[in-house]
Amino acid sequence: MNPIKHMAIIMDGNGRWGLKHKKSRNLGHKEGLKTVQMVMKYCIKKEIKFLTLYAFSTENWKRPIKERNYLFSLLEIYLKEKLEKINNEKIKIKILGEKKFSNKLNNLLNLAEKKTNKNTKLQINLALNYGSKKEIVYAFNKLRYKSKISENDIDHSLYTKNIPDPEILIRTGNTQRLSNFLLWQAAYTEIFFEKKLWPDFKYEDLNKIVKKFYNIKRNFGKI
């Protein structure tokens, strides 16, 4: 059975779900938080130590300002209401990406990282203002004075330093692309594209993917 240390998810389909059910993209984003809670509990139950959630990409700044502001306010409310509970459950929060938000949100994100820093039950990596190409450029800029650069050097210069590469990457929403997410880290990741929109993605769907992963023969170039 293949072990899982790290699961990564592109949470796609919130806006479409909201338009379909509530005629509001924003309500779809709010509903998607329930799925996030489910996945967190699943990872703890299965002893998966790292969960990376693609929450807001560098390209998402192109979205309407009202939708962006709603997403940020949703995150603010969530952290205010849940941070103490998250910490008590020994969950660590790490932000992947540049914190270029309001002072209020930046302070909350910094507090979440600081408060939960020593927790070890589950590490949640929130990819916020994250773009994989930008991350790789960031790594190369850190290494620009080295005469010779190795893969290990790059691994240790990315936002994901000291985080194992994901064994599983799931994208919901019936879209089959990586959208600038963990391009370096996903070199040997098993990728699962799920037709369901993120708020419709249930425990049974996640468990089905994990069971399928357990039975995959992973060769890593070997026969």
Taking the sheet with the most strands, its summary is: 6 strands, parallel
| Tally of distinct domains | 1
By CATH, the architecture is named 3-Layer(aba) Sandwich
Radius of gyration: 17 Å
Describe the structure.
42% of the residues lie in helices and 16% in strands. Helix 4 links the parallel strand 3 and strand 4. It is built from seven helices and six strands, in the order E-H-H-E-H-E-H-E-H-H-E-E-H. The protein is α/β, with parallel strands linked by helices and 223 residues long.
Question: Quick summary of this structure?
Answer:
This protein has 223 residues and is an alpha/beta fold.
List keywords for this structure.
Undecaprenyl pyrophosphate synthetase; six-stranded parallel sheet; 42% helix; alpha/beta; 223 residues
Describe the secondary-structure layout.
Elements: E1 6-10, H1 14-21, H2 25-45, E2 50-57, H3 65-88, E3 91-96, H4 103-115, E4 122-130, H5 132-142, H6 151-155, E5 168-171, E6 190-193, H7 203-214
Parallel strand pairs: 1-2, 1-5, 2-4, 3-4, 5-6
Helix pairs in contact: 1-2, 2-3, 3-4
